[in-house]
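Appendix B. Worked example

We walk through a single record from start to finish. Start with the input: the chain for Helix-turn-helix domain-containing protein, Streptomyces morookaense, length 776.
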Amino acid sequence: MASEFSALLRQLRHSAGMTQEILAERAGVGVRTVRGLETGERADPRVTTVRLLADALGLGPAEREELLAAAVRRTGHRNRPDGSTDHVEPTTGQPAPALYEPLAEVAELLAQSVAARWQREEEQRQVHDPYPLPVRWRPVPEKLIDHWVNVRRLPAGGTHAPLDVSGQLDEIVDVYRRIPSGRLAVLGRAGSGKTILTVRFVLDRLKSRARTEPVPVIFGVGAWDPTAIALRDWLAAQLTRDHPGLTAPGPGGSTLAVALVESGWVLPVLDGFDEIAGGLRRPALEALNSTTLPLLLTSRPAEYAAAVAETDVLTSAAAVELTDLTLDDLADYLPRTTRKSCGGDLAGTAWDPVLTALREQPDDRACADLATVLTTPLMVTLARAVYSDTPGHDPASLLDPRRFGGPEQLEEHLLDNFVTAAYRPRPEHLPRSGPRPDVDPERARYWLGYLADHLSRLGTPNLEWWRLGSGLRRRTRALVTALVTATAVSLTMGLLFWTVGTVVGSWPNVVIQFVNAAAAGLFTGLAMGTTYWFMFAAKDTAVPPSGMRVKVFGGARKAGRSVWFRLLIGLACGVSYGFGYGFVWGLLNCVLLHTGFPESLNISLKDGILFGVVFALGTGPAFGLQALLESPLDIRSAVNPMGLLRTNRRTGIAQFLLWAPGLGLLVGSGASAMMRPMTALLGPIGWNLASSVQVGVTTGLGGVLSYGFTCTAFGQWVVFSRIWLPLTGRLPWPVVAFLEDAYQRGVLRQAGAVYQFRHARLQDHLARRYRALRGL
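Next comes the structure step. The output line below is what the pipeline stores for this chain.
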C-alpha cells in the first residue's frame, strides 16, 4: 500500500509524456519533491501538492479522485470494509492529510449550498426561457495574455503555441480545464453576458466536480479593497458573510472559512474586476499576481487593459473576450419571447417587421442604431421585458428616428422603461406570498434610485441590509442611533413607572419617576450614541451580522478568552454607565425635592457609586453568560439576504428573552445583596425591596434595548431601515417586502447574502435619475 501513490503518479506522468522536471515546473514544485514522491522517499504528500500535480498532469475527475485517494491512504487513512476510513497519525506529522476528511465534508456541504443557490438564481432570471442567449468568445490581443509557456506551466526555455480557448457558453468548463495554470480572465463590455457565464461555469463545474476538486464560488470582487485586506482574508470574510456557519472552528484552530481558502478547497470566481474603484485596480491586479490561486476573473476590457498597462497581465492566465450577438441570434431568440400575431400569419410576431428592417436596411440610421444596441444580452433582455413581456407595446417604435437620436438614447429608454414594465400590475400569485403587491412605478423608481445612489456613494455593488444606514453621514448615524435609543428607553421606563403607579396609586411619585425615565432615556441615548460613534461611526463601518445563535441546551461554546473578555467589558460598562446614571438619578430627585446643593451633591455621588457597583455586578456576568451560550450557526444557514436577516432577528429575540430577565435579576439581586456593605461604606441609603425590583426590571429592559439598537446588526436594521429611512421618505415602510418584491420582479438579483441590481448599468441609470430629481 505504501507504494500505491508512487506507482500511480509515475504511471500518470508517463501517460502525459512528461519528465520529472517538466512536471515539477508545471506544478510549481521542486524536482526533488516529484522525485521523492515517485521513489517513496517522501511519504507525506500534502493535499495541496497533489492537487497541483493533478492540475499539471491535466487529469480528469476520476483520475484526480484516484490520485488523491492514494495519497490519503498512504499517509494514514486505512479503508474499512464499509468504505469509511480509520485515521492513523502520519509518520512525519504533516497536517494536510489529517485536515483532508473534515474539510472534504465541509466542502461537500458548501458545494451543495452553492449549487442550489445559483440554480435558483438562473431560474429567477429566466435564463432558460425559452433558452439561454448565446454567449461566445474569442482570444484577446496577445498584450493582455501572459506568455503561453507560463500559462501552460512549461519548464524554463520551453516554447509552445497558444492554447485553443475559443468556445461558447456550454463549453466554458471544458475550456477552463484545458488551461494548465487554472487561471482565466473573461473580458466583455457592459451587458455582454459575463455574469451569465460565471453562473453557468459554477453550475457546470459543480456537476462534473470530483470530491477532491475545489468548490467554485462566485465573489463580487468590486467590493474588495486590496490596500485594506489581503485576498485570502477577504475571500474568507465573504464566505462567512454568505455562509455564517463557516465561522465555526475548523482544523488547526482557524475558522472553517479560513481553512477552506488556505487549503485550496475554494476556486474563486471573481466577477466584476472593473467595478473595483479606479485607483485600486492596479494594487488589486498586483495582489492577484502575488498568489498562484487558480481563478476565473471577469472584467470590462478597457478597465482591465488600463490596469495591465499600469502593472502587468494576470500572471499565468489565459484571456478571452466575449463577442457580440448577431442578427441571426436576434432572429432566433426575440420572436420566441412574445405571442404569435392575431392576424392572418399566426406564425408571425411583433418582432418580425423590426428584424426584417434590421436585415434589409442596415444603412438606415435608425436600424443601425438599434442593431448596435441589441448586440449585448443585457439590452436584448431589457427589450424583451419592455416589448415582449408587456402587452400593448410595439417594438416597431424603437425604429422611430424622431424619438431616439442615437444608441445612447435607445439604451436609456430601455433602462428607464424596464422599471415601469417590471412594476406593471400583474394578476399572478407568488409562491407562499399571495398576490403580488401593486407598487406605483414612480415611487418604486424613487426608492430604487435611493438604493442605487446609496451603493454608488459606498462604492460597492452589494446591497447589504445591515449597511442601509451607512450611506448617511457618520454624525447623522450616531445622532439617529442615540435618538431612537433614548426614545425607546424613555418610553419603556415611563410605561413601567405608569403601570406601577397605577397599581399602587402613587401619582406624585409617578410624576417624579416620569422625569427620571426621561432623564434615564436621555442619558442612555447619549451614552450609547457615544459608544456607537467610537465603535462604528468614527471608523465608518457597520455592525456586522452575527454568525452566532443562542443555544441553552447543548452546542454552547467552551468557556475561554471570549467569555472572560466579555465579562471584563461588561464590568467596565456597568461601572461607567451605572455611575453616570446613578449620579443623574440622584441629582434629579434632589432638584425635584428642592434639596440643597451640598446635600444634593452628596446624595448624587452616593447614588453614582451604588449604581456603578450594582450595574457592574449585573452586566459583567450577563455579558459573560451571553458569550458562553453563543453557538456557531449551521454551515447551511443564510443562503440569501432575507435568510440572514431572519437568522439575526431570531438571535436578537433570543438574546432579549434570555438577557433581559437575566440582567434584571442580576442587577436587582445584586442591589439587594450590596445594601448592607454599601450602607456601611456610604451611610444610610433609602432602599427597599421595591427599589431592587424596579431597578432590576427597568435595567433589564432598557439595557437590552439600548445594546440591541446600538451594537447588533438587526438593531441597526430596525433603527435605519424600519424607522429613520421610511420616516424620511427614502424607503417604503415595508422594506423587506419591497426588496423581496424587487427581486421577484427581476430588478434585483441575489448574490449570496446580499442583493445586487440586475446590472451595473441599471444601478448607474437609477442613481443618476435620483440625483437629478433631488438636485444633487
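Two observations about the output. The first strand starts at residue 77 and ends at 79. The radius of gyration is 32 Å.
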